[in-house]
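We modelled each protein-ligand pair independently. The example shown here corresponds to the S-adenosylmethionine entry; the chain sequence is given first, followed by the ligand as SMILES.
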Amino acid sequence: MSFLDFLASEFSKLQKAILVESFQDDLDSSVTFEVVDRKTPFLPLFDVRRLEFQRGSSYSYSAIFLNKHLRLQPIYFAVQRLTESFFPKFSLLESALVLGCAGCSIPRFLALSSKDCKITGVEYSETMIKIAKKYFIDDPLYQNFLLLHDDAFSYIHKATEQFQLIYVDLFLAENNYPQITSAEFVNDIGSLMTGESIAIFNSLCLSKEDCVKFASRYVSSFTATYVFDHQFHYYVVFVKTSSSSKLNAFEKRAMSYVRLDERFIAP
Ligand SMILES: C[S@@+](CC[C@H](N)C(=O)[O-])C[C@H]1O[C@@H](n2cnc3c(N)ncnc32)[C@H](O)[C@@H]1O
């Protein structure tokens, strides 16, 4: 954890929550989404905007620092660090695809990291798109961000463009879709990856054993597949590269942020 991350987490304990607006879901009327600002007394640097999903309990779909000088966002720590570990020179990252966007924390991290990276986001909920446009991406910072209203499964099946980074963050309410581990989905993801690329799956609801099976099952379609773990939250990662030194450097950098649970190298 960097000193700034440490300060942000300490100050978050003092934050006051202010409800900005709540929205009824267009697909499921038992669900409410809330945009909530968390303000730190006397220290606006760490003010956070969150998009929360409420059904009995509250789940944070997205969270961003409102201050644009903070590049790393307060959520999806492992995804941001894995991306940086594969692309230490952000200027080389030219194209990224985010499946499941909500309040667009990862697009914000990417836009703040590389002004030239072309970012495509796919989101199927009209409510999410409305909230994102009103409270999260209404800023010139997002000039290279295209937010598409589509179903991610059909989008990846028909898309022809390729990407250097793909982040799969698809949730059906608070659960992963079972289809994300299917051969059809993984083949579609593989066909959208360039020769030097990384795909990161947010596997929040899968057990470590299921993640290991998932990573091992598809290793022959990639250069290497991994299971990383950040505070018992698992990420399955697929990498394509022609450079073994790049692969080693990626692993070394990644392991300074997240735990490497399993690694499979294609035969
Ligand atoms: C955890 S949130 C995504 C957070 C986002 N990646 C970020 O960077 O802040 C999951 C999102 O996936 C969206 N989603 C679920 N199923 C989808 C589908 N089939 N196609 C596109 N989006 C979907 C949900 O509406 C929700 O907004």
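The radius of gyration is 18 Å.
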